[in-house]
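Notes from the pairing session

We agreed to fold both candidates in a single pass and log them together. This is the raw record for the first candidate, unedited. Please don't reformat it; downstream parsing expects exactly this layout.

Candidate A
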Amino acid sequence: MKNIVFALVLFTSVCTMAQKNIYESIRFDEYTEDHEILAIIPFIAHLELKKAVDTDELTLLAEKEGYAVQNALETYFSKRKKRKKFNVDFQNIMNTNAILAQNNINYNNIDTYTTQELCKILDVDGIISGNLNLNILLSEGVPTDFSILDYFSGNANYGRIGVKISDGETGKLLWKYENEISKKTGKNTTELIDKMMKTASRKFPYDREKRRNRN
């Protein structure tokens, strides 16, 4: 019995440590007063896979993961936008990626451009971007079986994700949300984004209800 209690306490501690970490600029309302549209760009992924993969293939796999998050975020925001949850619009990612390509910006060099440069090119007010650190291919799905022992062995930890919003005029960081990725956060990219953004929904700065309560 004592062992069970100890395991539950330890499990709770692990879950607590994995809770969301959210930052919001104290000048958010000032910077975003005129924001109307945001662009979601591909995330930068860093892979440390357990299986051996050559450099070229690893680069392609990282790119795939980065675009998968971009797509999953668009899906999430589109669903919420239909229910009029946000006071901004989101640029269609097909348009975003097409405009980037027309300007010779791709996954491999997008991080060399400033927020202001990207916003000017995309004709948007802000950028949603982020980073992924993964030891699995999340877009291909993760094991769905669950054991509390996995948390102690480290087999339940797949990496970490950070989502951020930056202002197009100043380049300032407006909002950032970081979360660990594990068996509990979703079986694939779409489910991960859906779950984590729902968890952060009360803190999402462009939420109509949240802004109304601040004014």
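Candidate B (folded immediately after A)
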Amino acid sequence: MSQQVRAAVFRPDDDRIERAVELLDSLGATPVPDPMLAIEPTGATPEPGAFVVLTSKTGVELLDEAGWEPGDAVLCCIGPATADAAREAGWTVDRVPDEYTSAGLVDHLAPDVDGATVEVARSDHGSPVLTEGLRDAGADVHETVLYRLVRPEGAGKSAEMAAAGDLEAALFTSSLTVEHFLDAAAERGIREEAIAGLNDAVVGAIGPPTRDTAESHGIDVTVVPDEATFEALAVAAVETAAPTYHE
């Protein structure tokens, strides 16, 4: 694939952005790393519950560092990355939904949580779809905020590139990455220009909630992968953005 596919990626500035850059390189794209999320741990740990729901690798790692254990709780992880991290921590993962979204997790757990206590441990920007859906299924839900997600100082070079027409792809991995990208663009006085630049590029959203957030701000989403993983998102977006050559 052509090196001309400049692809912006907004993962947190840790091993996730490093792996994302490596993956985009392997796909023949030119990565534009611009982390839009920084993690501020709260130091909190989950309260006891019959079910404990973890929604991110970050949450697992913070709890592992704190020495937390799931005990006898049914441990539920929203997707494979979270589940793999939990297994690496030495925990038994009991439930992973087929669809790696809040709605998918609700559908997966709904038949089993009526009358049960469910502890949801996640960031301060978790979707209400999860907690409200579990309550609607009859669960007694408690939520613990493990960490806050903030925008790193200086983020936004991708917004400048989008506004200048210098991006072929942008890969949004959460609603918050969309909002922080637009905030960074607004701080630079180029919000509308950045949106116009994205709409001339291939915009990938990791799942329907991220797509809906982008579209609500006037961003045209080109790609939503069938599987809500970064790898699937990157492959689909780069393949869509890559120029097609005819001999």
